[in-house]
Amino acid sequence: MQLDIKDLHVEAEDKEIIRGINLSIKQGEFHVIMGPNGSGKTTLCKTIMGYPKLKVKSGDIRVDGSSILKLPTDKRAKLGIFLEFQNPIEVEGLGFVNFLNTAKAAMSDTPVQFKEFMEDIKNSVKELHMKEDIVGRSLNYGLSGGEKKKTEILQMQVLKPKLVILDEPDSGLDVDAVKVVANAITEFQKKTNAGIILITHYSRILNYMNPQFVHVLHEGKIEKEGGRELVEDIEKKGYRLSE
User: Fold this and answer.
1) What domain count does the chain have?
2) Which residue of 15, 30, 124, 217 could cross-link 157, Cys pair, CB 3.0 to 4.6 Å?
3) CATH assignment at residue 105
């Protein structure tokens, strides 16, 4: 899968948030988007997934050459795009396993093999150092912020999307959990060759990862681009790289 964002302009409540972004992510590539609060990172994620409260004023988002702007969120997900939420919500009464099984069935043209499906969940629970009782819980209900982030990564591992958008997967995690999540994302990409877009404020999760491309987003525009060396520049200078 290849995602191409062409001169994208996006409004929220009549205010322009994204102001002309161009970005291409090819199959197997690992891109990092960094930037200060309010720079438009989460808005960009939501726009790719078709969040209805955002309005694309101009530009395009294409998957393998075809525009997806008119597709609803579920159709975009079926293409193989996955978004890990910055703030996952709790849904009491909706069983986590039932939710994930329904999602996997909706994305597949073949019936879900429940035995293999449960084996995937158990392997992910172990890899992410989660409590085994997660399989009997409601979706995110009663979980800590860090546990909710891990359930998002677990969903990614089970659903096996072609393009993964990770909106601050490191927020709310302690030092040990950051390493666990980073390693899980890296192993997932090795196994699936998925494209990765990782949004973060800080570089600590990148200490355990090897991104190929780094983009600095500021006031709705990509201000600077480079490789891993750009992360080191941000560590030294902050986001005022032009000074």
Assistant:
1) 1
2) 124
3) 3.40.50.300
Q: Which residues pair with 112 in a beta bridge?
A: none
Q: Is the pTM of this model over 0.70?
A: yes
Signed CA dihedral, 142, 147, 148, 154: sign only: negative
∠ CA 215-218-74, nearest 5°, is 70
Two structure tokens written together for 158: 């089970």
Which residue range forms the structural domain that includes residue 8? Answer: 3-237
242 in any annotated domain = no
Domain membership of residue 243 (yes or no) is no
